[in-house]
Amino acid sequence: MTTEVGRPHHHVTFAVLTAGIVTYSLLQSLVTPVLPTIQSELHTGRSTVTWVLTAYLLSASIFTPIMGRAGDLIGKKRVFVAALIALSLGALLAALATDVTVLIIARAIQGIGGGVLPLAFGIVRDEFPREKVSGAVGAIASLTAAGGAAGIVLAGPIVGALGYPWLFWLPMILTAASAVAAHFLLPESPGRSPGRIGLLPAVLMSGWLVALLVAVGRAPDRGWGSGEVIVLLVVAVGVALAWIRVEKRSARPLIDMAMMRQPAVWTNNLIALLVGVAMYALFAFVPVFVQTPTSAGYGFGASVTQSGLMVLPQPITMFLAGMITGGLSRRIGERAVVMLGLLVSLASVALLTFARSEEWELYLATTIMGAGFGFAFSAMSSLIVGAVPPAQTGVASGMNANIRTVGGSIGTALMAGVVTADLRPDGLPEEAGYTNGFGMLGVTLVMAAFAVLLVPRSRGVSVAECRPPGTATTAMANQAE
Predict the structure, then answer these.
(1) Comparing C-alpha atoms, which of 442, 473, 151 is closest to residue 304?
(2) Quick one: CA dihedral 255, 256, 261, 264, positive or negative?
(3) Which of 382, 398, 374 is nearest to 114 (CA)?
(4) What fold does the segment set 2-197+254-480 form as a domain?
(5) Which molecular-function annotations from GO does this UniProt entry contain (predicted)?
(6) Domain coordinates in residue numbering, the chain
(7) Which residues in the chain show pLDDT less than 70?
């Protein structure tokens, strides 16, 4: 199926992108529920094993916008394939690792693959008919979130049946196959953005992200008022200000600050930050709540596998919601779909806050939660892609994903602090900690809903108008009109 000689049909392109995105999103979360197993197998401490997550998070936060910018400069297909190769090599090294240091390095290599998401958005915008872009972006965004949630569900059965190295062997096989398919089947980008990636802006951006995320990661254990955390936060703010100043003065910046100030961009980034706070904290702490022994007076004493089954509705409804977001957005607008998603998500948080003593209540809450975040996540991604010219799609969506990740780090740290603020003699949190924590996430979603009201009603730059002339997609878009 092709649209021009040698140029694949957009359905083929979508299938290849989907394969890469799903495996990337699985690698994000597969290790989260089984950190205690990895800690035991590699004979390391709790503080050390958490770097298996932190190293990936730091690397992805740094490389996601850089890889997006690189795709705009040298070609989205080339960089997409490179990102999948990095994921494969990192997964291979992790599967073979017999030492926690090697595993941490492997996870940092995997973080380079965070660029697949903005690159996929850019390829969709380049190659799809205009009327198909919103739906495809929404579907890919929902697959990313649903894949991350599915990783939490699948981790227990994989480890129980095959052992924890298969958390990396299976994704490695899939990412390697996806890289080969992408190399042979994806079309190369029809246009390029002028410029280069400056070393100083990249170093400064990496510096403030590392300082911020390390501070947020250590705050639950050390306390937000500890000297170490305060120093790291001050360094993060100082380096971030220096980075912004350098970017403003650069003729060809890594991140265009004028673009970041556009109302459609900064409002969506604000929503992404707040949604990240709530969504990732819920993904992390709902399974923990379910696994709490019943002797605590709450929880269900579930195993890792059982807790995965209890949250299984979440990735299913998230995927389904993302698949219908495109059509819904065409009828009521993407801004309205984001608002709908946030309100539905808020309903799930209300259930978790006030009604979580029965299993059916948890199933209902996770079902609603998946649908809500599926709508919000997908429509938000479409909004940011439609808000900028095609030459800035990669870097804009990369920064949006990055900001959402930073929000997730902050949300997880805040939730950990609230939940563990008052511990029982047996070391388990009091149930009130979960009530307060879920309530805090509900307030975050209310703030995100108010932020949606600030998003301009305009759909921004027309995808068809900005696409370089002469491409297969332009012809298809013109025919559709």
Answers:
(1) 151
(2) negative
(3) 398
(4) Growth Hormone; Chain: A; (1.20.1250)
(5) transmembrane transporter activity
(6) 2-197+254-480, 198-253
(7) 1-8, 46-47, 190-195, 391, 458-481
